[in-house]
Specification:
The strands form nine sheets. Strands 13, 14, 15, 20, 23, 24, 31, 34 and 35 form a nine-stranded mixed sheet that branches. The N and C termini lie far apart (about 55 Å). This protein has about 700 residues and is of the alpha+beta class.
């Protein structure tokens, strides 16, 4: 343990803080480990000065909760700086050096259209324009032998042209660098001599896998966001230092794990999905605490709704998640997203059809009801008009809802549609729920699961507002809203483990003769994993998880299969084959016991467990539920009078019926008719839909 952290832990309080920055709010979840007290907070983001809201939040925590930053022994941070840089296309001007004759690599990609059924679909423009791609005479065979060394004169000309065209960095990606990275390394060294002011990333050092497009595009994403992410993290470290924080900042990663800020400045691509991933990790932890085995998560913020499956209490992982318009090929928590959030703007198109999203009002100016200058109707405004929202302060007292402004914004749409304002607001909500329904059905179909067996866990500021309505449409029987839904992503950072992913492509037939190669590769990766954890400051037990990407001979793509290191140690090739057949059967409903198998990649995850945290549990008691007041709500067909409950007055064992509204510091829970509500011993609010 670092000396400053040890001193902080011994002097009074021991604060562990998780922070997550979204499109509208930055969320804080602070745990005082000795007492078990949890403090949470939301602060509006400052897009013009990313990071300033962090200092504002720490100051408010100190003012309201007695939080002392000098006693902070753990600080975990998730940020959207990287992904926003890509979505907004505000990254660094880059050049690409690749093999001569392969200059069209990133434009050709995989020759697939994003939407094969759309006549108007087009592929996104590459992050590096064609005039900034330079072909270098060089060639490496697939077996790793060199047939033509890189032409350094061509490299010198390319670097000069890149500098003249304003490049800030260069990506080097050569054929078969996954097998032998020597050519990329020599060109990188040459660039460092020729233009030390330019940063350089090679494809093999970012993610050394077969398939040149995937390897190249991952390296390009890393370089594209590097300057902004590095500058942001440098400023973050400086700001924390001025506050006297002894803990060095840790960052949430796309794979649901953590890494330190120093690595984050180089391996920027690993944190592109940090916010969405940490939300799922936080939800997984809450699901395990509550004994929920199968959960569909619904994270609704200001700009999007994110969905993920938790099976057996664990998040699901995959590759190929979209970052804006571009696929990310490193391991990440599997999350599906759609541009429908609380700030999604509703409008009428040229054909007179009501649309919702994907454009969002964000935090500035925000929904009309925030009174911050927004004038266009949003999903949040529709909730206000229907009466579900606007009965208490929002975001820990930072926002007051102006119902008049919400009615004015929705009223303008209603006038254009020739419908009553309440019906128009309900139509906005119905469209938002239906668009989420379609996305969730896709997710369930891909995973091959029956959502009726799952519990919906809504979180984020907007999740509880719409979650119960979505669950009802999906035919789900249970909904579980955590005590503090608005800060689940920040909680995810608190409970996350250190996790590093490592990969090697070996590309060989699976046989007894290939097992020694697999075993040697695993041992090499295992040592890399241990070294990586040590560099992160982890000096406790290490968990190493082995898997391989395999396929039948003749297939174009492989599947990931979890393996036991014991099978390799024992030389049990049959156990490896049977594991592949079982996995293939689970995914595709068939397997071929006589089929030849190819092994493509060996993967290893090195995990260092985070702190063992727990929240206090309270025994359930039978207690009368007090109704704060009754209020009119438009429930879809008529105005009904429903009960309003204050979440802080609900105790374990409290029960009540829907329709109802539950208000709390960070969100509002809308509960439709037909739902039975109960508070459990973890202070989760559980809904059960009655037949």
């Amino acid at each position: 343990m670092d000396g400053a952290i040890a001193d902080a832990a011994q002097n009074g309080a021991d604060w562990k803080v998780g922070v997550d920055i979204g499109g509208t709010f930055i969320d804080f979840c602070a745990l005082e480990a000795r007492s078990g007290r949890v403090a949470s907070l939301k602060v509006l983001t400052t897009p013009e000065d990313p990071g300033a809201e962090l200092m504002t939040g720490l100051a408010l925590l100190a003012e309201r909760e007695g939080f002392d930053p000098t006693h902070m022994t753990r600080f975990v941070h998730g940020t959207t700086v990287g992904i926003n840089t890509i979505i907004q296309r505000k990254g660094a001007p880059l050049a690409l050096l690749t093999n001569a004759g392969f200059e069209d690599l990133i434009e050709l990609a995989r020759l697939r259209m994003p939407d094969m059924y759309s006549l108007f679909c087009s592929r996104p423009d590459p992050l590096i324009s064609r005039d900034m791609v330079f072909g270098i005479p060089a060639r490496m065979r697939a077996d790793g032998s060199e047939t033509q060394a890189p032409d350094m004169t061509a490299v010198e000309r390319a670097v000069a042209a890149a500098k003249a065209n304003g490049a800030q960095g260069i990506i080097v990606s050569f054929l078969h660098a996954w097998r032998n990275a020597a050519q990329e390394a020599s060109v990188k060294a040459a660039i460092a001599r020729l233009a030390p002011e330019l940063f350089v990333f090679t494809s093999a050092e970012v993610w050394p896998v077969i398939r040149e497009y995937e390897r190249s595009s991952t390296a390009i994403l890393n370089g594209y966001v590097h300057p902004r992410v590095s500058a942001y993290l440098t400023a973050l470290e400086a700001r924390l230092k001025t506050r006297g924080v002894p803990a060095r900042p840790m960052l949430t990663k796309s794979n649901g794990g953590l890494m330190n800020a120093a690595e984050g400045k180089r391996a920027c691509v690993n944190m592109l999905l940090s916010g969405t991933a940490s939300g799922v990790i936080g939800a997984s932890w809450l699901a395990r605490q509550a004994g929920e085995d199968k959960v569909l998560t619904l994270d609704i913020g200001g700009t999007s709704a994110d969905f993920a499956l938790i099976i057996g209490g664990e998040a699901q992982f995959g590759t190929g998640e979209l970052i804006g318009e571009f696929p990310l090929h490193i391991p990440s928590v599997s999350v599906s997203s759609i541009g429908v959030g609380g700030g999604s703007i509703a409008g009428v198109d040229a054909q007179g059809v009501l649309r919702v999203g994907p454009e969002s009002a964000g935090s500035t100016p925000g929904p009309a009801c925030y009174g911050r200058g927004g004038e266009r109707a949003t999903v949040t405004d529709a909730m206000v008009v229907c009466g579900w929202l606007g009965h208490s302060e929002m975001a820990y007292g930072q926002l007051r809802i102006d119902t008049g402004l919400a009615h004015r914004a929705v009223g303008e749409l209603a006038a254009r549609l020739g419908r009553p304002v309440e019906q128009t607001a309900q139509a906005i909500l119905d469209i938002a729920v239906s668009e989420m329904f379609v996305e969730v059905e896709k997710l369930a179909s891909r995973a091959g699961v029956d959502l009726r067996e799952f519990t919906l866990m809504p979180f984020g500021g907007g999740g509880p507002m719409l979650g119960a309505f979505l669950a009802r449409e999906l035919g789900m029987k249970r909904v579980m809203a955590p005590r503090r839904p608005g800060v689940v992503s920040a909680l995810g950072g608190l409970v996350a483990d250190l996790r590093g992913d490592f990969i090697r492509t070996i590309f060989s037939p699976l046989s007894a003769a290939s097992l020694p190669t697999i075993r040697e590769t695993f041992e090499t990766l295992a040592q890399e994993g241990r070294d990586w954890l040590a560099a992160q400051g982890h000096d406790a037990a290490v968990e190493l998880n082995l898997s391989c990407d395999m396929r039948y001979v003749g297939q174009s793509y492989e599947i990931e299969v979890v393996l036991s290191p014991k099978w390799l140690a024992d030389g049990d090739v049959n156990a490896v084959k049977q594991a592949f057949h079982r996995t293939h059967e689970q995914l595709y409903d068939f397997h071929d016991l006589e089929g030849e198998i190819e092994l493509v990649n060996v993967r290893l995850s090195a995990i260092g467990a985070g702190p063992a945290l727990s929240f206090p549990e309270i025994d359930e008691i039978e207690a009368p539920v007090s109704v704060a007041r009754r209020l009119p709500v438009y429930t879809g067909t008529s105005v009904e009078t429903v009960d309003l409950h204050d979440r802080q007055n609900l105790v374990p064992g409290s029960t009540f019926q829907g329709p109802a509204v539950v208000v709390q510091e960070d969100t509002t829970f809308a509960i439709p008719a037909g739902a039975q509500a109960r508070v459990d011993r973890h202070l989760n609010l559980l809904l059960t839909f009655v037949e």
